[in-house]
Specification:
Elements: E1 5-14, E2 22-31, E3 34-40, E4 50-55, E5 59-63, E6 65-66, H1 86-97, H2 102-118, E7 121-128, H3 138-149, E8 152-159, H4 178-192, E9 201-207, H5 215-228, E10 231-236, H6 240-250, H7 254-260, E11 268-272, H8 278-287, E12 290-293, H9 295-300, H10 308-314, E13 318-320, H11 334-344, H12 356-370, E14 388-392, H13 404-410, E15 416-421, E16 424-428, E17 431-432, H14 437-456
Parallel strand pairs: 1-4, 1-5, 6-7, 7-8, 8-9, 9-10, 10-11, 11-12, 12-13
Antiparallel strand pairs: 1-2, 2-3, 5-14, 14-15, 15-16, 16-17
């Protein structure tokens, strides 16, 4: 059967390929779910079975954005504990999170996914680690929401086995046993992980953090991931307090501790990595361990400024993350392009820290690297999957900025005229086409209110 083609032309294009190839006016041809061709000028003549032809005048086409760290469930606890650091924020919100159930998880996932997709995210990721006893099929609810939205998705199946009786923050009924967490994670992989080139759903093994899981869960989780051929994800070096905790409990800093448990490697990526010294960065570079940089959340929780320019110079794979929507209430990734650039310029490298094209690469190809999918997504190249975004840059907000990439990164958040995932339309004229946004907003509001009532009852 002949391939169905979509042709986008007369637009600026930032391919984010190895050479950062750009076209001031060019075209992209999509055949079914693959990018067939990209180039300058008009699309090749004589293309067959063109089902849609789009005039991209006044627009920039980029690869779809790739989110590398998130906590969807936090959508229903936004706007709380707004003046807290990380530890106090966790103390304030953990009692509510411990009451999470399946309808709440689904509504929160829908809200988080909708905001990201509407803002140009084509590959989403969720690190979900809260599995209270009797809460239902939370992983299935989250994966179902992503499938309904039509976005590519990685569920980092998280876990915690350190409850209050073991010195952790969550109540004991909100954590899993070591054996239970490993078994449930393996079952999730067996049921949902797709290793194919054009996979829409993948699973990673993701114990929460050094201070909420046991050493056995980390080391055995790493063994499980490698036995099943999936990636590994956790939080690392987010705060000064975490470093002090690791040194007091394990006699070493977070990076050395992770290495001792099998948690450095090209199949691993960690969120935040704010407090990394030179030897930590060298260890990540040597092993190919990736980083999910979450600039807005790091600022919101006063965690600090990650050394992204130094990581990139050393060769560490770095992508961008929204992080949880209770520590980044906008829930959007395209604003993180700008925030990553601006916040890193407050560090020691100042104006040389990042430029617009480096920021765009973090949000696209860098994210694909971190998720282990750089041969499939993250750049506009023939043969790659058709995950593309058409940004509208001819309105008042960007009208006097000549360079379209600078307009996208430095300027106001650009509207999304079209977002394709796997060659299928997910966003059209800044609205989701696959789901009812108003219904999602109502559901999330109702579940947030229900959670607040339950949490208030203790």
């Amino acid at each position: 059967m002949a391939a169905s083609r979509i042709v986008i032309e007369n637009c600026a294009i930032a391919t984010v390929d190895a050479n950062d190839t750009e076209y001031a006016s060019g075209y992209v041809v999509v055949a079914d779910n693959r990018i067939e061709s990209v180039g300058a000028g008009t699309a090749p003549a004589g293309l067959e079975n063109v089902v849609r032809r789009i005039d991209g005048t006044g627009h920039l086409v980029t690869p779809g954005l790739v989110n590398t760290h998130h906590h969807f469930y936090q959508w229903i606890t936004r706007g709380l504990a707004t003046d807290h650091n990380l530890f106090n924020w966790l103390v304030a919100l953990s009692p509510a999170w411990a009451r999470l159930d399946e309808p709440m998880a689904r509504a929160a996932a829908q809200g988080s996914l909708a905001m990201m997709a509407r803002g140009g995210v084509t590959t989403a990721m969720d690190h979900h680690y809260v599995y209270p006893q009797g809460s239902g099929d939370l992983s299935g609810a989250i994966i179902g929401a992503a499938s309904e939205m039509g976005v590519r998705f990685t569920l980092a199946r998280g876990s915690m086995d350190r409850g209050t009786s073991d010195g952790g923050l969550p109540p004991d009924f909100a954590v899993e046993s070591l054996e239970g967490a490993l078994a449930a994670t393996e079952a999730t992989i067996d049921k949902h992980h797709d290793a194919s080139f054009d996979a829409m759903t993948q699973i990673a093994v993701a114990p929460c953090s050094p201070f909420s899981v046991s050493t056995d869960l980390l080391s055995q989780g790493a063994e499980l991931a490698r036995r099943k051929g999936v990636r590994l994800h956790t939080h690392g070096s987010e705060t000064v307090e975490e470093e002090e905790f690791c040194k007091e409990l394990f006699g070493m800093g977070p990076t050395d501790y992770f290495e001792s448990t099998g948690w450095l490697g090209s199949d691993v990526w960690m969120a935040h990595c704010v407090h990394m010294n030179d030897s930590d960065i060298a260890a990540f570079a040597r092993t190919g361990t990736g980083v999910a940089h979450c600039p807005s959340s790091n600022a919101r929780l006063a965690a600090g400024i990650a050394r992204v320019p130094d990581m990139l110079k050393a060769g560490v794979p770095v992508g961008l993350g929204v992080d949880g929507t209770a520590s980044n209430e906008s829930g959007e990734l395209h604003t993180e392009l700008r925030n990553a650039l601006l916040i890193n310029r407050l560090g020691p490298h100042r104006e040389a820290a990042l430029n617009a094209r480096q920021a765009l690469r973090l949000g696209t190809y860098g994210g694909a690297q971190v998720l282990g999918r750089a041969d499939q997504i993250g750049s506009i190249e023939a043969g790659k999957l058709a995950d593309l975004v058409l940004w509208k840059l001819d309105t008042l907000a960007h009208s006097s900025i000549a360079d379209p990439v600078i307009a996208l990164v430095f300027g106001a958040a650009a509207p999304v005229t079209l977002s394709l995932v796997n060659g299928k339309t997910v966003v059209e004229d800044n609205h989701l086409t696959t789901v009812d946004e108003d219904a999602i907003a109502r559901s999330a509001r109702d579940e947030a209110q229900r959670l607040a009532r339950i949490a208030a009852q203790g």
